[in-house]
Amino acid sequence: MSRLWGADVAIDGIDRFHGGAARETYRFRASAGGRSEWLVMRRDPSASLIDTSREVEFHAIGRAHAAGLPVPRPVHLDASGVDLGSPGFVMTEIAGGRACNPFEPGAYGANAAITGVALFTALGQLHALEPDAADRATLPFMDAAGRLAHWKAEIDRHRLRPEPAADAAWRWLVANIPAPSGPPTLVHGDFRSGNFLVDADNRLLAILDWEMAHLGDPMEDLAWVTDPLWGHQMPGVVAGTCTREAAIAAWEAASGRQFDARSRGWWQLFSTYQGLAIWITSAFEVAMQKTADPTMIFASLYPYRAHNLQAVELLKELRA
Fold first, then answer.
1. What CA–CA distance (Å, rounded) separates 297 from 263?
2. Statement: residue 284 has pLDDT above 70
3. Terminal-to-terminal C-alpha distance of the chain
């Protein structure tokens, strides 16, 4: 920080955020002369739910920030880990925000519907961005087939036992790959309740956790955020906020795109398959004694069971 600011910087107030398992996340205050700023550092842990790129996340946040989306401002990328102890980056802190537990009913209170419309408007604004040269150079492009192949490789590499639900889902998915819903766009990759901040009135403050960003089909983000796992145990609303109809309407208005109802079932099952890949990887890291993080242990239990059951039910519907 002294090198970045060109002054002797004092660091205090260091505190770690627990919850996410893709990065170690810390907040700290940097002070020099009359300048003081609260910042957030995200760096690679010893074990993770998924392997992701620091450059990708840093670029995606910067692209969203430049477009006026509610995200932190990126400050410094350390791809080698020489500055931060392991590869990572620094960004500004969003003051006064909190991330709600995606398993808590009624987490967004009386303003839930307003927050939902704001959330899906922001998602639509992201999907309205036309990928530029820097996006194409930094963000991986993965269409439906590419995304499916990516998660199959993760399951095959980390499975500790037979996974019949995941294997059955893959067989249907690979046999029914849909046409693109439109031109490729920026995809957040983990857009869901728990990955955005709200203020004291439960209104949207910021969208976080861009480590899975890529270029692809926006239907992927829509399917993941509307997955029942992130629904706060509240049937009839998505992400614990607004109705599906209100969400899609807000997204269409902001993105200038049309929701592709034809591929909805495929992307719903894909989201379940993606979830299983993440939870299976988490169980592998715990079983190999690479981590004892409670988040990783939890991920290998409750979400894993939920997505196994969901895969079976979705397959019944899709085959009917």
1. 33
2. yes
3. 59
